[in-house]
């Protein structure tokens, strides 16, 4: 079927909830996408940060092929191969224990069950984290918020208010939309669920005032270490540290939404680790399974144990296919040293973006970067269209902001290609 035929069917039968670019991708390899007409593009969006190992990575493809042949789904009424291994690996990464994660990942890759058991076993004093598997970032955030309120009711201060940050983004369900403090996204869907209060990012004085007013009514602070959808805005380490101190002081928990910034994208396993803060709960998705839909709520064991059978569930979460993909993806990220690669190439990319015409500011960390354009550049969405025509896939989060979320396999040579394309487009 031709692109024009596909587009006509899509326009007639698919709900119009997206403003689509006029291209249909049908094939991919590494950093490259190919459209229906055979033209190739350099991918600096990675399915909005999902395809962390690029397109067609043999480790992920092989795992998915094997699992699809053996068993795709049985439901969470039963034990599932690979799920425990993935959860154990996430526990090591949540502790920022790359050495321990490396030993475990190698044992998993080698298929040595005894070595896996030994590597997964917590050492004396090691924090254990437990995982609930979901299908998406919104579901992971729903689970995180439910867990924070349940923990407060059963083990904590009894509060039910969650402090969220203006400009944040936590999902499109009604509950996660209520936590997304952006009027332009919320207004059409009011009334929204209650129990949320807004605070300005990096405003410590306002944060302290919120706690002074609400105190023990607060069961959680929920934040993104780097706000992606608002234009890649990192939180100050001091603000994150104060949020942790204040919420723990009143008996609540800190939730880190790592859906976009997590899974090695910033050069750390999880972005909040850059602030030197250990959260109580983390929400994961996007890059966790290399392109297969998957999400996870990861919590310190003492918080996670507030959940009892029947408190939460998912038909597809943690399916055979999803955990096989997650296991192969995480093992490759750990064994391949992608934390260091993301940090090094990301720093180089930031330097190169600063040299592009009309760029006035570059923000972010690792391979999660945004840049603001001056008025002379025109609308950033037009820049995205021009870049696509020139052979690069990028994204705009506003009229003057470009966002870049390339696969973590991105090289400095790929960055140079992008910089040349952007320079050409913005020099016109």
Biggest β-sheet: count, sense, barrel?
7 strands, mixed
Number of helices: 16
Q: CATH superfamily membership of the largest domain, which one? A: Type I PLP-dependent aspartate aminotransferase-like (Major domain)
The parts where pLDDT drops under 50 for at least 5 residues are none
Protein name: Aminotransferase class III-fold pyridoxal phosphate-dependent enzyme
Family: Belongs to the class-III pyridoxal-phosphate-dependent aminotransferase family.
GO molecular function, one term: pyridoxal phosphate binding
Keywords: Aminotransferase, Pyridoxal phosphate, Transferase
Notes on the structure:
There is one protein chain. The chain is globular and about 60 Å long. Helix content is 41%, strand content 18%. The longest helix is centred in the middle third of the chain and has 18 residues, at 137-154. The chain has 428 residues and is of the alpha/beta class. The protein has a seven-stranded mixed beta sheet with strand order 4-12-11-10-7-5-6, with helices on both faces. The protein has a four-stranded mixed beta sheet with strand order 1-2-3-15. A four-stranded antiparallel beta sheet has the order 13-14-17-16, covered by helices on one side.
